[in-house]
Design goal:
five-stranded antiparallel β-sheet; Jelly Rolls; four-stranded antiparallel β-sheet; alpha+beta
């Protein structure tokens, strides 16, 4: 199913508070309003493809997405789970004008697409807004560094423990229903799907977590932290 473009809405009346947007002037917000459109993406749709040109800034109003890069043999490395209130600015926007990661929808997503021209104009003219955007991109870089450390220095159990803790932060709960498949969780942990299933079973048998389908509950938070730390 292809994505659906629907009516333009007023940025001033948006109920979602995007980082840094409160520093925009009325004229800048109006420029965003005039340049953007609202788009609904279906689960599984590609929102951004690595290597393509930067064409829009994407604000997530509802739903979840995965941000990932391609590793060796086209293996996906998931860097971050995106959710309501996040917006996507490729670092390539200010260098080679290309996207250096891919983003695809984990659920149906309600988004707003803002033109690159309106966004970069606000970035150049509004120092506070530019500072917030730099913080956002630095956070994505920090997430990448954290993943590299996780993959390089931790064993399989430590990687999976780290992923469960991360998902708990994403869903802001110790008991949550994840929208990720087992393969997604494996990609987020840099382990094979078979290895992931085995570790999850060990955690469940040890009473560290309860897991039923896509429902996960952390029973022993400190134990999970220890496993993640010593990895």
């Amino acid at each position: 199913m292809t994505n659906k473009i629907i009516d333009i809405t007023d940025c001033n009346l948006c109920h979602i508070k995007f980082q840094g947007f409160d520093s925009l002037s009325a004229n800048e917000l109006n420029s965003f309003k005039e340049s953007h459109c609202k788009v609904i993406y279906q689960k599984g749709e590609t929102i951004i493809k690595e290597g393509t040109r930067c064409s829009n800034i994407i604000c997530i109003k509802k739903g979840f997405a995965k941000l990932y890069i391609k590793g060796l043999e086209n293996k996906k490395i998931i860097i971050k789970i995106l959710k309501e209130g996040d917006f996507i600015v490729s670092p390539g926007l200010f260098t080679d004008n290309r996207n250096h990661f891919s983003v695809s929808a984990l659920t149906e997503m309600d988004t707003c697409l803002i033109s690159v021209e309106a966004f970069t104009k606000a970035f150049r003219n509004n120092n506070l807004f530019a500072e917030n955007i730099l913080k956002l991109n630095h956070q994505i870089t920090n997430d990448l560094y954290s993943q590299l450390i996780n993959f390089s220095h931790k064993k399989m159990t430590g990687r999976v423990a780290n992923t469960i803790l991360y998902l708990s932060e994403v869903y802001d709960a110790r008991r949550f229903h994840t929208t990720l498949s087992r393969q997604d969780i494996a990609d987020l942990s840099s382990v094979s799907k078979e290895s992931l299933i085995r570790v999850l079973k060990d955690f469940k048998d040890s009473g560290i977590i309860n897991i039923d389908g896509n429902h996960i509950e952390i029973n022993a938070l400190s134990t999970l932290h220890n496993i993640s730390k010593v990895g």
